[in-house]
Amino acid sequence: MSELKSAWEVAQEKANKLGKLSPQEIQQQRKQECWQIGSAIAQKYLNDIEPPNLAAELNNYPTEERDLIKPAILNHLVQAMGLESWSGISPNPTKYDNRSGGVYPRLEKVIQGIAIIDPNLQSIIERIRELDQEYAQAVRKTRQTVENRGRETLHQLRLSGTAVGGINIEATQEWQQSWNKLTEPFAPRLDNLKRELIKASCIISSPLKGLPSPLDGEGQGEVR
Length: 224
What we know:
single chain
């Protein structure tokens, strides 16, 4: 059994502490605990250098609980899918640094996890990959333009050598403005694909009060 406690066991412990609960209350607690378990599994998958096998993790739970955990994993992974996970303002923009210090292509990791949980989403996943390629190409083109302008400026100041080679593009205001402008047409396209994922999958609204829905804060980045 997984290191995460069974949702049923947790619900029973709470029932013993709080007194007898109605069947509806127990079911709601069960849904909440399964949602928390699913979110924890997804975050561990995103954080670890050697992520857990999502299919194996799910098989640790009874079928009824599994059906409640899967939507939470998908919800968490969809929230983790943002433009910053593809090509953002960072020294190594196409990589995601996890807590353990390793690197992994963030988008690919997210969509691989989604495909494991729901293989029927493959056609939408391929469209997301296509959008990623288009976006990465636009980022490279914009980056090259900003770099060339920076070199021209340094050349006019009669600077060369290491000064030219050591330009930190991401630290410049021009790059940040260019990147913000670049993302404008791509963010809504990504959000539309995320909506399609949600519609085509088993994702449901969170049973936990105060937790975001899959597209809350859309276009603003990913879950960390």
